[in-house]
Amino acid sequence: MTVSKPIKAALLATTLCVMASNAQAETTPEAVIKHYADLAEAKYADSLATAKTLDAAIDAFLAAPSEDTLKAARDAWLASRVPYQQTEVYRFGNAIVDDWEGRVNAWPLDEGLIDYVDADYYGSESDENALYTANVIANAKININGEEVDASKITPEFISGTLQEAGGIEANVASGYHAIEFLLWGQDLNGTDAGSGNRPATDFSLENCSNDHCDRRRQYLSAASDLLVADLEEMAANWQAGGAARKALEEAGPAGGLTTILTGMGSLSYGELAGERMKLGLLLGDPEEEHDCFSDNTHNSHLYDAVGIRNVYLGSYTKVDGSVVSGPSLSELVAQKDAAIDGELKADLDATIASMETMAKRAEATEAYDQMIASGNAEGNAVVQAAIDGLVKQTRSIERAIAALDLGTIELEGSDSLDNPNAVFE
User: Fold this and answer.
1) Helix (H), strand (E) counts: the chain
2) pTM, 2 dp
3) How far apart (Å, rounded) are the C-alpha atoms in residues 159 and 228?
């Protein structure tokens, strides 16, 4: 029997619909959760690889300190932030990540704990932190909670076991990306004027030492870099097959796993990024309230946080080598329940990243992020506020996705900066 063209077309359309339906049916919560872990494994592997590249650049710099080798180390640090910031969406909801994160990305830090600072800009004392200007690089002995501590050897173990959050003070950040950032760039003394930190390469020279204690400064930078690699090795292993983070997700079950994913997306989007990292600085007009404050790289850190939220939702991550890891997505799962909510959330995620990209382009071409948030800078403030508004709007869509998946109430991180701005000034 000859089949007419219209019937052929109808049969083809029916076949395609059945194929699409089957594809959707194959997207289960279990598959989405497993792929979420696969994405984490890829992101932390990239973070580890770029940290090792940074470590090698630091070794090369210390072997031959110069402005060129210092720039190469700084460039390696900037490159390492791209994959790492995309992992931050795993922090909220995953206790293993949240308990560990302070070792690698805690901020803000009282940098006077580590090295010399400009007292006129930084201050010389703090009622809240006795180690505010302890300067361990300049002192082989320091006092912590009334006890004298031997600081003669600056090792990874000393940094992690003694200095990190010394005295129980969170601002005593001694390890991680931002401690290394401070050592590579030094303080940014420009306020809301143009310019980042400008530490000279001779601060690490044994032959032509500037600002004293170059041997100990070299020890600190080398130890902090080695420690970052070790910490990332630990977290990368947690997401590999049989790793503790994967096991925790499996044990949480389908509803618990989906709750973990959405908690990470919503909490980073709203309380952490829109609130504590962006709106607070905008309210205060304070250049110290920026995430990468020594290098003036904050625009990129915020952008890649937003990218990380979106790639978890879409189930797709572009690795540093350009290859793409993709698979069953939360987006597909939400679409099965309510296609309109899925479309709305995808549009909101795209809009937020567009606002972040506008902010990043402005930072590269016109003024840095710390200048944008300065009081009285109406145009710069508006660019930052647009990104904040995008994050808030996408959080509302995340909440609708939670409702569509029948996950009950999920507690997302809040922020006084957004929920009760007056409290910021009290």
Assistant:
1) 16, 4
2) 0.93
3) 11
